[in-house]
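Protein in question kept underneath.
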Amino acid sequence: MTPSRGAGRWAPWLYLAPALVLLGGLLVHPICQLGLISFLEYTQAQVSGGEPTSFQGLGNYTTLFADEQFWQVLLATVLFAAACVVATLAVGCALAVLLTRVRALPRLALMLAALGAWATPAVTGSTVWLLLFDPDFGPVNRLLGLGDHSWTYGRFSAFFLVLLEVVWCSFPFVMVTVYAGIRAVPSEVLEAAALDGASQWRIWRSVLAPMLRPILAIVTIQSVIWDFKVFTQIYVMTGGGGIAGQNLVLNVYAYQRAFSSSEYSLGSAIGVVMLLILLAVTLVYLRLLRRQGEEW
């Protein structure tokens, strides 16, 4: 018996229903609570029950947007996340191509090393990188002849150090995913491009990248989400945001406002703003990819 067109239309949603119910329970309720608190006056006085909770409307957002530090932190977060995404994609894609060029044993060694970096907890990885770049005992300063130079003292050097750690723990996901996509590309296509005299860069730009567009979209969106909401690396490696907050990003800024200052409603408002920014970036990126796909 042939299923009706309506049943076929709903079949994918039926298969996805268990996962959607689970994700809904884990994500929808916390997001709703986050949004609700952002519209309330919710400080330590309300948490302890000393004062009643009152509805503030957009008051918390007005206060937040009037804060000059918020805009400075937002700009720093966007620039830092963009640098991390570009560096992670560049390193991951380059190593993915390298994996297709080396023999089995070096490929296995690189895979194991990358997966080891990927599996390392963020706190552990951040601590190890701090030890490597320690001004007194770190081997990096000795190798570079920098003496007792402190990488975490300056704003840009601290951001650069955190960027290295973020790329180190993030590139394995890009490398493994892109490598799997490259292996799925028919070898005849790559051989034809090589016979036509195309360089490796030309093959990547004109052959592999267009065919890997869906995979590149996934790793880019994941990288944007991960790098935009970096918390652990910044908090551990800069001591909670650097000297006078010079290395603050939105996630650490929200943590400070919510828990250090007990302004939970303002911290929630920052979380809502971050969520909306990530949704907007994801939708715009997917729209651009779809438009490019139609042009191709």
